[in-house]
Design brief:
single chain, 8% helix, globular, mainly beta, 5-stranded antiparallel beta sheet, 272 residues
Length: 272
């Protein structure tokens, strides 16, 4: 064979190979990005004590945000730092009264250090690194997440706010819906890839995810039909906890309702 033709064929095969590899990663939505914000909440039972006696009890929803900001090096490995910020607490006491109180502090349940390699996401917690997500897996894949073996039961694509995200379902653990979305995380929050990550009897929710000050994903998008784009016009102020609005069930609202009652700054308002 002519050496020139052989050289051209070799170059063609090399270019096609590189192109194929590029196409396999193009479109992947990275999980870690500087400034990214996850707005989340925790539903839990609360009790207030006085002289070692319970004087009040009921349920509460703790609203908080997680933000990626800055880097840290551990044992020669660079990690992105995740910071938690409490936003507010909405309580319903034993008599059914609903009110809001300031949230001044919260226990850091999530890894504070994260890194992403390819389409795998690792968190560094309790002095060791753990695999939290592998968004490259296919239908039927069996993977180990935090010492738990899980099987991928569904793979499709969901559209939110004009962007496409790969969505996976893994076998159910407890009461949590086992939905993962690349670049966003688990329906229960970015650190809840399985319920065994935080198995403390409380219920966790990821409410919305922001990149560059824009909402890219919300709670309802996890369950969207493939190809249906539900564009949310949420104010970036929500990612900072400013002007938080809630319904009477303590769920955060994106805007003041046209009719009905809502709670803001601990006060109840009625729109007629």
């Amino acid at each position: 064979m002519n050496k020139t033709i052989l050289l051209l064929l070799t170059l063609f095969v090399t270019v096609m190979s590189l192109s194929s590899k590029a196409q396999s990663t193009d479109g992947y939505h990275p999980f870690l990005k500087e400034g990214k914000v996850w707005n989340c909440c925790i539903h839990e039972v609360y009790t207030e004590h006085e002289d070692q006696k319970i004087v009040s009890s009921g349920w509460q929803t703790v609203y908080y945000s997680l933000t990626l900001s800055g880097d840290s090096v551990v044992n020669g490995t660079t990690y992105h730092k995740m910071h938690g910020k409490p936003l507010s607490i909405v309580r319903k006491d034993g008599e059914g009264k609903i009110f809001s109180i300031p949230a001044t502090d919260m226990v850091a349940l999530w890894p504070k250090l994260w890194r992403e390699e390819g389409e795998k996401v690792y968190g560094y917690i309790w002095n060791k690194e753990q695999l939290y997500y592998d968004f490259s897996v296919e239908l039927g894949s069996v993977i180990v997440i935090s010492n738990q073996t899980v099987t991928v039961t569904s793979v499709d694509t969901v559209t939110a706010n004009g962007q496409q995200f790969r969505r996976l379902e893994v076998e159910r653990f407890g009461g949590y819906e086992p939905i993962w979305v690349e670049g966003v995380g688990h329906i229960g929050g970015p650190f809840m890839s399985t319920m065994y990550m935080v198995n403390d009897g409380r219920s966790y929710e990821l409410l919305s995810c922001y990149e560059d000050g824009k909402c890219i994903f919300t709670q309802k998008d996890f369950r969207s039909e493939p190809g249906v784009d539900r564009i949310e016009k949420l104010s970036p102020a929500l990612s900072k906890g400013e002007g938080a609005i809630f319904d009477l069930q303590g769920r955060r609202l994106s805007r003041i309702p046209e009719k009905g009652m809502y709670i803001k700054d601990g006060k109840k308002y009625v729109m007629k």
